[in-house]
User: Fold RNF41 ligase from Erythrocercus mccallii.
Amino acid sequence: MGYDIERFVGYVNEGLLCSICRDVLEDPLQAPCEHAFCTACIHGWLIHHSNCPEDRQVIDVSLLRPLYRYMKNDLNRLQLHCRNREHGCEMVCSLESIDRHERECEYSQIPCSNAGCTMQIERRNLDGHLAVCEYRSRECPNGCGYTILSAEDTQHNCVAELRTELELLR
Assistant:
């Protein structure tokens, strides 16, 4: 499936749209008849059909080729908004660099790194979340040396833990 045309700034040439999904070409391939498609779209189409969805000429997966360089260059120069725009990201970049930006975008939703926590947090807020996450681990504040989860704070007993450790050593 292609890139949603609503994300793009300005006019997008009709030749840069997938003939199947009607979005801007993503990972494009071109048939011998020169019609262009998103890789996922044309592979899905060819599972059930053996012809071009535009002009019905017979095509096979082995006949698909990358876009001509000039078309690829036109595609890469298109400007589009980050997919995290609704979360506040105002970045507009070329299609060529959007993947790199979105992997590093401060507004991307990422999972908490603490085991057991299922929260999704914006990358820019991760440090704040980790400081208060109920699944964070830390060393016991009483000095026994054990790593505890803050959720276990109320059940942690240094004396009992140290007795168990002593028994294991004997």
